[in-house]
Design a protein that fits this description.
Beta-Lactamase; 16 strands; 47% helix; transferase; Heat Shock Protein 90
Length: 543
């Protein structure tokens, strides 16, 4: 028998197995999630690199377009400045002024002006007020640069102003006698002055770091320290700290050709990354559903496998138990049978007639019962060897029933036999089939007599029927003995389980064993007043 001390080790092994499987599933889940995560990070990095490359290229295109536009303005101012007289008086043709200052078609919507070498406003179109600040125009950086370099300059007209000034020198005999300047409204007169898109901002800074395009800069560029941060970004590429609240904003800078201006392009990556993020979340959701489904399927499969494992374990324990019991039973049955042979020989000397006849018949009946039990124990202790021969099923059934007429219960039971009238040949082991039928009919007779003794039936009756169904022989044994107790059907064919006070529980187990070794089967059906056992056996051996 299996040792009970092995149960804790078995339970521990089961828990360790479950932990190992769960750890494997967890590792599988981590690996499954790591794949999309790494793919997502790679996709984001690649998309960002491509996005940044595209933004840098677009910023360069915008800067070149702005540089070309400003170069055109400078060229036009230089051409018109030839009309400024030596006394810095207005000597410009009306047509030129119209080309420069016409509200819709002119190049400088905010007007043009001429300053002398001391920065004093000599005339303007339309008329402009003299700069009242300390030093006037003479102190402006752009004015000083034009005088010093004698080259055109583009800058804000004043620090923090949103008006551009394009100034060119008026040189006579190598001396700058005046400065001719055109004024531009940055919101309407320059490429990029209007918003490009909802997630793109274009900014223009002068050499001092003043942001004068656009007029209403983004919130992160409106903080007091933004000017210094932007200059730091232009000079060293350091990301402005004011952008920390917007980590997905990309910033690129490029100089405007022909000027000291710098163009900055700020782009929001949120729209770009939202699609990748949504796809990643969908992948994670699908993986989560797959993981949950895997766990559910594993739980179902594990319960089935565990049930099969326990069933196999129980069968192995039962087989070990039966093997031990079989060995002991064979030894005991062998000794009992030897003793019964001596008793049977002794009782044979007593005449069944006369005063001792009842005693002799009783002894014969009990000796036969004990001999049957001993034979059952001997047969149970060793596996049967199938020896097939051709037999007549009808005759075999009749012989079994006739052989049981000598039982003490035979006089009280009515046994009806229905078999084919003609010969019914089939191939089987007659000894095993006889043992199976003997057990079934014997159990039925004993059950019906017990039911009569308990007052459940008035006339014990057993029906034995044989027929051929397709390629199988079917023998039915029915009785009106009431059947086994409720709930006993599941363990009806287990060895050493019986509801009879005189049985040892081997009859049905041996019957099923005898049939299964020949390729047959034994089934049970409960009837309203008894039991029905159906014996199915192939007529010919199965290849």
């Amino acid at each position: 028998m299996p040792s009970t001390s092995g149960r804790p080790e078995l339970a521990q092994a089961e828990r360790q197995f479950v932990r190992s499987v769960l750890a494997g599933l967890l590792l599988l889940g981590v690996v499954a999630v790591a794949g999309p995560l790494l793919s997502y990070r790679g996709d984001v990095a690649g998309a960002r690199a491509e996005f940044q490359t595209r933004m840098t290229r677009e910023a360069r295109v915008y800067a070149e377009a702005l540089g070309l536009h400003l170069k055109l303005l400078q060229t036009e101012l230089l051409r018109v400045s030839e009309g400024v007289g030596p006394d810095v008086k207005r000597e410009l043709p009306t047509e030129d002024l119209q080309d420069l200052t016409t509200p819709r078609a002119g190049l400088f919507h905010a007007g043009v002006m001429v300053l002398d070498a001391q920065g004093k406003l000599r005339w303007s179109d339309p008329p402009l007020a003299e700069d009242s600040s300390q030093g006037g125009f003479a102190t402006r950086p752009w004015f000083q640069q034009v005088l010093a370099r004698q080259t055109p300059v583009v800058d804000a007209i004043a620090p923090g102003a949103s008006t551009f000034v394009v100034a060119v020198p008026v040189v006579r005999a190598g001396v700058t006698t005046a400065v001719f300047a055109g004024l531009l409204d940055t919101n309407s007169a320059l490429p990029g002055g209007r918003p490009l898109s909802s997630d793109l901002e274009l900014l223009v800074l002068n050499a001092s770091g003043d942001l004068f395009l656009p007029t209403a800069p983004p919130s992160w560029a409106s903080v007091p320290r933004a000017s210094g941060e932007l200059r730091e970004f232009i000079r060293e590429g350091t990301r402005p700290p004011s952008l920390d609240a917007m980590p997905e904003t990309f910033l690129t800078a490029t100089p405007v050709p022909g000027t000291e201006l710098h163009l900055l392009l700020a782009a929001d990556e949120t729209a770009l990354l939202s699609g990748l993020r949504d796809r990643f979340l969908v992948q994670l959701l699908v993986l989560a559903l797959l993981q949950v489904g895997t766990l559910v399927l594993f739980s179902i499969h594990w319960r089935r496998v565990y049930g099969l494992f326990r069933e196999v374990e129980n069968r192995a324990a039962q087989q070990e138990k039966m093997a031990a019991l079989g060995s002991a039973a064979s030894l005991i049955a062998h000794e009992v049978k030897n003793s019964l042979n001596g008793l049977k020989a002794a009782t044979g000397l007593v005449s069944p007639e006369g005063d001792g006849g009842l005693v002799a018949r009783t002894l014969h009946g009990q000796i036969d019962r004990l001999a049957h039990l001993a034979t059952s124990l001997l047969n149970f202790g060793k596996p049967p060897v199938v020896r097939r021969v051709d037999v007549d099923l009808s005759r075999l059934v009749r012989d079994v029933v006739e052989g049981l007429r000598s039982l003490p219960e035979a006089d009280e039971v009515r046994v009806d036999v229905e078999v084919p009238q003609d010969a019914a040949p089939m191939s089987c082991d007659p000894l095993l089939l006889t043992t199976a039928l003997d057990n079934l009919v014997r159990n039925a007779m004993e059950a019906t007599v017990a039911a009569k003794d308990l007052g459940r039936v008035a006339q014990p009756q057993v029906w034995v029927r044989a027929r051929f169904d397709a390629d199988a022989a079917v023998v039915t044994v029915e009785d009106n003995g009431g059947g086994p107790p409720e709930g006993a059907e599941g363990r009806l064919f287990e060895p050493f389980r019986t509801s009879k006070p005189k049985g040892i529980g081997l009859g049905l187990a041996m019957t099923r064993q005898a049939l299964e070794h020949q390729g047959g089967q034994l089934t049970f059906e409960r009837l309203p007043d008894g039991s029905r056992f159906l014996l199915h056996l192939p007529r010919a051996p199965r290849s």
